[in-house]
Structure prediction request, 173 residues.
Amino acid sequence: MERMTLDLSAKPCRFPALTKQAHGTICGVSTEATSFYFSDKILMTVCQGGKLSQWIHVPTDTADPATSTEHRLLPTVGDDPGLDFEDGENSNEIDGLLPLPYLTPKTILGGSTSERSTVGRLLAAHAATMMIARDADETRLVVLGLGLEMGTPEGGIEREGFFDLLELMLRVV
Prediction:
């Protein structure tokens, strides 16, 4: 019987998952966003100070009962003459900043206050919505890791900081 030998030496190769990174300053705090596209899930992290303190997951394979064949973010004003805005800023179309209503984010770890938990779930729903907007057939689980130092003492976040976070997250989608 012949003896087999195995070559267990390390071979340099690329990380097997597609990754994207973006850096920015949000409310004066250096922030890093990273996404990893695995075959069964998409992992996105947004951290400040190198820490991750909250984890949320969002299944994207749940079918929207209203539109089971196609995903539609939001209608334009031309689709519904009843849509009107008083400030005129968004008078031509809805800007699509609302997450899809059928997504159900769940906190896995962290979220010590209700405000922090709410902000985390809202950001996770937005992350999943961005993934679905990029690819309407996306069914992988979206997992968001957050480590935010900014915001109110209760864990909330100001409007400008929230939109800056969404913009940074969009850069890694």
In short: Residues 114-134 form the longest helix (21 residues). Residues 81 and 142 are 35 Å apart (CA to CA).
